[in-house]
Design goal:
Layout lengths: L1 H24 L5 H16 L1 H12 L3 H23 L4 H15 L11 H6 L1 H29 L1 H15 L2 H16 L3 H33 L7 H26 L3 H26 L1 H33 L1
Helix pairs in contact: 1-2, 1-3, 2-5, 3-4, 3-9, 4-5, 4-9, 7-8, 7-12, 7-13, 8-11, 9-10, 9-11, 10-11, 11-13, 12-13
């Protein structure tokens, strides 16, 4: 199943690269834009094998290897991004990210023949996961899309200037998600609980440090952007509830309750989209931040409830 997923991802990446190249040749998009797209796709594809490998280790209960591979795929491309950023050129930066991703991540080459017969037989297994991935992407970006629709791309940049530094905490807690997953895969709920508590503690402390820095020094560091206290606070709480959703959502995935996890994401995305559309014209970026916070609260609480319900049923049965 994982090999098939890697093959599909690779085939999709190849198709997108070819499409970008053809559009550039036909004059539909500029060469620089096509090159940027291609390099970004190659950088993302470069860490896919490590991501699949990390998932396999976590499913087998191998926490150490899962943690190593998670750190590997999450940070390998960032070395290139950071070093390339000094050039001030997007293409150079993405080329450096692509190089570091391909050289530092686990190397694997896919079979380019897509196993369609196998996918047809196993669609009940991979379709829920694909739905979950799509819903996770939707809820993560719907606030930015709503801002772009109502206020333009410049407003998106101002919003992301607040949100992106706070979202940096995800790179601290995502390795712990692997430990939670690996522990649950071998039915070690006590260890999973400890990892989840550590995850939430790290997230909370990191945000508590980041918030006053952004409020007090954000404009000094980034003079072109504003860091209003209510916006920063709402965004920080949104990030915390996002971590809460990830911490409990992974248990639903391990338990096979992918539909519940995905449905919570979809409902949260709908809440964010509707609230953002209504509030942004009135409150500006604060409206987007309030919408994001509301959506993540509504997403995480049902996931926590379903985990509690599963565990309560296990206690009664045991």
């Amino acid at each position: 199943m994982r090999e098939a997923a890697f093959t599909l991802t690779s085939a999709s990446a190849l198709i997108t690269v070819v499409a970008a190249a053809m559009l550039s040749v036909l004059g539909a998009i500029e060469l620089s834009a096509a090159l940027t797209v291609c390099l970004g796709i190659f950088a993302a594809w470069g860490v896919t094998a490590s991501r699949v490998r990390a998932n396999a280790y976590a499913a087998a209960g191998n926490e150490t290897s899962a943690l190593f591979e998670n750190v590997r795929w999450q940070h390998s491309y960032k070395i290139g991004l950071v070093s390339g950023a000094f050039s001030g050129n997007a293409i150079v930066t993405l080329a450096a990210a692509c190089t570091s991703a391909l050289s530092l991540s686990y190397a694997a080459w896919p079979h380019l023949r897509v196993p369609w017969a196998y996918l047809r037989r196993t669609w009940r297994h991979w379709a829920p996961g694909l739905t979950l991935a799509a819903s996770a992407f939707l809820i993560s970006w719907v606030d930015s899309y709503a801002i772009a629709w109502t206020s333009g791309t410049e407003a998106v940049g101002r919003y992301q200037a607040v949100m992106r530094p706070l979202l940096g905490v995800t790179f601290l807690y995502l390795p712990l998600i692997a430990i939670v997953q690996a522990s649950l895969s071998v039915s070690d709920t006590a260890r999973a609980n400890r990892a989840r508590k550590a995850l939430l503690l790290i997230t909370g402390v990191s945000l508590a440090v980041a918030v006053p820095i952004l409020i007090g020094f954000g404009t000094t560091i980034w003079p072109s952007y504003e860091f209003a206290t209510p916006v920063v606070l709402c965004c920080a709480l949104s990030v915390f509830f996002g971590a809460l959703s990830a911490a409990f959502g992974i248990e639903l995935v391990v338990r096979g309750a992918v539909a519940q996890c995905a449905s919570a994401n979809v409902v949260g995305a709908i809440v964010i989209a509707s609230m953002a559309t209504a509030l942004i014209p009135v409150l500006g970026l604060l409206g987007a931040a309030i919408a994001s916070l509301s959506g993540w609260v509504i997403t995480s609480l049902p996931q926590i409830y379903w985990v509690w319900r599963f565990r309560n049923a296990e206690r009664r049965a045991g």
